[in-house]
Amino acid sequence: MAEDLSLESRFQGYIAALNERPFPGLAKHMNPAVTLNSASMELSEFEQILSADIDAAPDMHFKLHILLADEGKQQVGCRIEFTCTPISDGELMDRKVRKGGRFSCMEHLFYQYREGKIAEVWHLPGEFVEMGEVEEVNGS
């Protein structure tokens, strides 16, 4: 069966890559140079930003709630929820978090594709909502 190359399918593949552990990187889904909220950077720098967040909360999981894809303009708009449990007190995505707290956040993002891959990302951060504490098992 032929691979589905629709914009919607390609974007869902990007979300699946974000959820893989170990984090596989995003070269299959993004251009070598990307723009995040008008800041140009190499893909490796974008991946470092994501990797730092994943290292701080290894159970981070992204779930699509709304996905709108415009094949003609090669644009995607979405609402994504991520959930995570930070493994230490500190900051995650520029927000103060505490170890063992379970957090959820809804974010809105827009993507521009070029040559079949993501070239630009506009990120509208949401508020972290603490969902409670994760109980430690066996004193760990």
Summarize the structure.
This protein is of the alpha+beta class.
Tell me what the structure shows.
Strand 5 and strand 6 (95-97) form a beta hairpin. The chain is built from two helices and nine strands; from the N terminus they run αββαβββββββ. Strands 1, 2, 3, 4, 7, 8 and 9 form a seven-stranded mixed beta sheet that branches. With 140 residues, it is α+β, with helices and mostly antiparallel strands.
Mean pLDDT over the residues: 90
Reported for the largest beta sheet, the result is:
7 strands, mixed
Residue windows where pLDDT falls under 50 for at least 5 positions: none
**Class based on secondary structure composition and strand pairing:** alpha+beta
Q: Which band does the percent of strand residues land in?
A: over 45%
Helix content: 10-25%
Distance between the amino and carboxyl termini? 46 Å
Total strands: the figure is 9
Count of helical segments?
A: 2
Order of helices and strands: HEEHEEEEEEE
| Gyration radius, rounded | 16 Å
- Please tell me what the overall shape is: globular
**What's the multimeric state?**
single chain
